[in-house]
């Protein structure tokens, strides 16, 4: 099918002002770290964007001390209404500077500007607005008459939604009266550092938010710090298990938002065109770097051929390329390491006997790229049906009865998300009831809202983020 030719429509990067190097944001000030520095690159071009300080254990200690002092002298003494004012201010600043954040996020992460502009940044602001509203109403959240914060919270986040994950962490922590030390992912620190500037602009008291950049060891130093009261982590199940082991036997609270292998279940009465759009949204949104992606498509056997054919026709129209182009649907893979992982798992899919198809689109010469790919003939024992690929790769399996669909959907160590496509409301309710997944979407996929709790079953973690349930994760004795 011929695709329309679109003239390039690049968003200007003149709106962002990237410094050549960044320090750590501790106690409201920029300080040099005691460790080495590393570079953050644009994954679409491999261009170095900035030098970033790697915080070591002594830097983490300074940040925790700043957070402790801010907690006991200022933040825990402030009324909820006053804390809320700061959060509203931050939310408005995120909206005012939305274009700057969107361009910076696309540059550092590789995701299309269409998504940073329409999803990541507006949702990040929405999280601050939503939690700002809770700050003076915690006694009415059904969590007891006077729920108490933990104190100092250590937060470690991944690279797939850098600013959005930061807002999922910082907004509820601050609203409930905690102070934070947050580490962004090594490959995507820039929007967290711009957020630090927003905290200064909002006149947030020094030490309430501390941003310590770095890699794995910096994260470990946060997890291990004895004066941290609670750890909130989003990332892989492997690291989540290590964190759970590290803090076992300590007094620290913990919430873990981990990996997933979401089943997107299509029954034979589903509206096919809408379903195809939902499948695309489920696995090709954000290059498939989504913990709750619909990475396993379970299609009823009688319509499997037709769904696969229509899906392939639709995928041929996806535009892969420059993340700053407003027409781009699929951007760059975030890092070479992630590209290698996707490549290896896809090779394993072929070697184990699944049929591989990709949309054959041209790819840029520089940067990290992977074509939208579909595997059919996948069986449950294949690695591509079991392991999280975290890339634009869909595994298609079939089923004959609703019972078989549910059994296959639940046959995974994960339990984060699932989707159901059918014309019948009763079938939606029956299926959703059987699925062991924290989020189940019906006739849609990958919808997010700050009012809605998000989190997993089984090895997808514990605790919820968002909604009233998410507040509980930041209040002592509530979760
Ligand atoms: P990751 O390797 O687990 O990293 C997550 C964060 O933890 C990064 O900041 C990382 O640092 C840090 N880290 C690594 N080792 C650590 C350690 N030993 N102690 C403390 N911190 C450590 O995960 P990723 O590959 O970046 O992210 C992808 C994973 O996140 C996927 O599995 C995805 O499903 C999951 N995820 C889950 C959700 C959810 O809400 N459930 C949301 C988004 C992503 P550096 O990377 O800087 O080295
Ligand atoms: Mg980067």
TrEMBL record:
Domain Aldehyde dehydrogenase intervals: 30-475
One Pfam family named in its UniProt record: Aldedh
Protein's name according to its UniProt entry: Putative aldehyde dehydrogenase dhaS
The enzyme's E.C. designation: 1.2.1.3
Originating species: Nostocoides australiense Ben110
EC class name: oxidoreductase
Domain of life: Bacteria
Keywords: Oxidoreductase
InterPro entries attached to this UniProt entry: Ald_DH/histidinol_DH, Ald_DH_C, Ald_DH_N, Aldehyde_DH_dom
Gene Ontology molecular function terms on file: aldehyde dehydrogenase (NAD+) activity
Family: Belongs to the aldehyde dehydrogenase family.
């Amino acid at each position: 099918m011929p695709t329309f030719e679109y003239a390039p429509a690049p968003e200007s990067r003149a709106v962002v002002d990237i410094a050549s190097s960044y320090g750590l944001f501790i106690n409201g000030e920029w300080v040099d770290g005691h460790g080495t520095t590393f570079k953050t690159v644009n994954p679409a071009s491999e261009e170095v964007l900035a030098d970033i300080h790697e915080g070591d254990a002594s830097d983490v200690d300074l940040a925790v001390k700043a957070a402790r002092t801010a907690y006991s002298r200022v933040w825990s003494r402030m009324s909820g209404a006053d804390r809320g004012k700061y959060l509203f201010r931050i939310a408005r600043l995120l909206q005012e500077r939305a274009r700057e954040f969107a361009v910076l996020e696309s540059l550092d992460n590789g995701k299309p500007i269409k998504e940073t502009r329409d999803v990541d940044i507006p949702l990040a602001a929405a999280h601050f607005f939503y939690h700002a509203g809770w700050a003076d109403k915690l006694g009415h959240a059904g969590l007891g008459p006077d729920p108490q914060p933990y104190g100092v919270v250590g937060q470690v986040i991944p690279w797939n939604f850098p600013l959005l994950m930061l807002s999922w962490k910082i907004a509820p922590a601050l609203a409930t009266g905690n102070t934070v030390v947050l580490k962004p992912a090594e490959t995507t620190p820039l929007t967290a550092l711009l957020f630090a500037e927003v905290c200064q602009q909002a006149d947030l008291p020094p030490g309430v938010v501390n941003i310590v950049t770095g890699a794995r060891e910096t994260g470990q130093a946060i997890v291990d710090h004895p004066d941290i009261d609670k750890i909130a982590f989003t990332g892989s199940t492997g690291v989540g298990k290590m964190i759970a082991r590290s803090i076992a036997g300590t007094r620290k609270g913990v919430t873990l938002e981990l990996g997933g292998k979401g089943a997107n279940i299509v029954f034979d009465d589903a509206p096919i065109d809408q379903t195809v759009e939902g499948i695309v949204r489920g696995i090709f949104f954000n290059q498939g770097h989504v913990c709750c992606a619909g990475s396993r498509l379970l299609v009823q056997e009688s319509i499997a051929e037709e769904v696969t054919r229509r899906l392939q026709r639709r995928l041929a129209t996806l535009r892969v390329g420059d993340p700053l182009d407003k027409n781009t649907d699929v951007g760059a893979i975030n890092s070479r390491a992630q590209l290698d992982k996707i490549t290896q798992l896809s090779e394993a899919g072929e070697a184990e006997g699944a049929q591989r198809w990709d949309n054959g689109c041209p790819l840029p010469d520089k940067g990290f790229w992977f074509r939208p790919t579909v595997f059919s003939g996948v069986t449950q024992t294949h690695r591509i049906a079991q392991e999280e690929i975290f890339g634009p790769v869909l595994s298609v399996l079939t089923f004959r009865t609703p019972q078989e669909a549910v059994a296959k959907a639940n046959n995974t160590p994960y339990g984060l998300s699932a989707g159901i496509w059918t014309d019948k409301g009763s079938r939606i309710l029956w299926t959703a009831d059987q699925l062991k997944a924290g989020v189940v979407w019906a006739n849609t996929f990958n919808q997010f809202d700050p009012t809605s709790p998000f989190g997993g079953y089984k090895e997808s973690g514990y605790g919820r983020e968002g909604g009233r349930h998410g507040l509980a994760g930041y209040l002592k004795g509530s979760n």
